[in-house]
Input
Amino acid sequence: MRILVITSLFPFPLNEGGKTSQFVFLKEIVKDHDVTLFCTEHQNEHCISGLNGLIPALKVLTAKPAKSSKKISLHNRLIAKIIWELRKLLPKKEEALYQHKSFIFPVSPRGMCDFSSVLEVAESQHWDIIQVDFVDNADLAFLLPRSVRKVLVIHDLRFASVMQAMNNDRLDPAYTEYYAATVKVAELSYFSHFDGLVTFSIDDKEKIISEGIHSPVMAAPFGVNDALFEKEIDQKELQQLIFIGSGIHHPNFDAVNWYVTEFRSQLSTEYSYPLHVIGNWTDGSIEKIGKTYNVFFDGFVEDLSIYVGSSVMIVPLRIGSGIRTKILEAFALGIPVISTTIGSEGIGAQHNVELLIADTPEAFVMALRRLVSPQFRMKLVQNARKFVRANFSQKQTAKKRIEFFEELKDHYWIATNS
Output
C-alpha cells in the first residue's frame, strides 16, 4: 500500500513516548509498504537525517519554515503580555488549567501556510491510506481529499484526561462535569469525519463506541522496539528511582509534582533513593516543581539501559488514557515498575506478576520495600519481559493495524458524515 502518515511530532530524536510509538510503527511497515511521513512542523536537517539513518526506506517531508515579521512578533508579544496579566486574576487551580490549554483544547484552526503545505502533500499523489497521528491534528479530516481513506490514530482521549485532571484539582464537581462535557463534544465531533479510528487500548475504544461514534474503531497498540530485548537482564543493589517523560505533557508534570508534594516525604522516612527525571523539561516547568532534595532533572538520555539493574521506574500518573510507552520499554529492558492504576491502564499487566500497583503514597512505600530485594526484582522483570514480548512485539502490533488499513481500503467504510 501507499501510505501517507501526517504528524505534528517528528519521531526523532526518540525522547518522548509519542515519538517512540510512531517510530516503531514506521520502522516495521516500511518493510512491505511505500510510506511517506509528513511533519506539519519544520525540522532541521539533523533530525531528518537522523530519522533516515534509522529508517532508510522512509520518505520524509516536513513543512517549510514559517515566515516571521517584526510586526507579527510585536503583536504576539503584546497578546502574550495581556494574557499574562489576566492570568494573575484567575484562582490558582483555574490558572493551572489555563497554562495547559493546548492539552485541554488540542484542536485549533490552522494558518494559511500550514493549510497549504498539508494540502500540497495530500494531493501530490494517490494514497491508499492517510494516517493522521494525534487528536491535535483531527481538524485535517476537513482538509484531506474526500476520495482517500483517512485514519486518525488517537494516542490519548483528551476528554477522559481532562476529567481526571479536574477531579485531581478538586474543582467544583458541577463545573468539572460541565468543562469535561464541553471538551468531549468538541473532540468527538471530529471523529466521525474519519473513515477509521485507531486507539492504543481497548478501554479507549469502548469509550468512543459508547459515545455513538459510527466510524470503525480498532484497538491496536504500538509495539516495542525489538532492539530493547537485546539488553541483558540483571538486578543489583537498588540505587535510584527513575521517571521518564517530558514535562511539556501535562500528565507527566502532574505525576512528578504529585510525587514531590505527597510521596517523597513518606519515602524519606525509610529510604533516601534519589529520583532521576528523564526527558525534556523546560526551566519554567522545573521551577514550578521547585528545588527539591534528591530530585534531579537529567534531560534526554539516549540509552536507558544504563539504569538496568540498579533502578526502579515509578509511574505516579493520575491523568491519561492510551498506553504508556515508558512502561513497555521498562518491561523490555528489565527495569521493574511501580505504577498507579491509571498509569498501567490498557496494558493488561498484572499486579505482583509483571509490575506493582500503588495508588497512594503508603502503597508506594510498601511496594518499594518489596523491590529492595534483587531476587524479587529479577522475578518481576523476567515476567514483564516475557509479557511484553508476547503482546507488544514490533511485528505483531504493526500487522494488526495494517490489516485494519487493508480492510478500509478494500471495503471503504463510509463515515457517517462523509
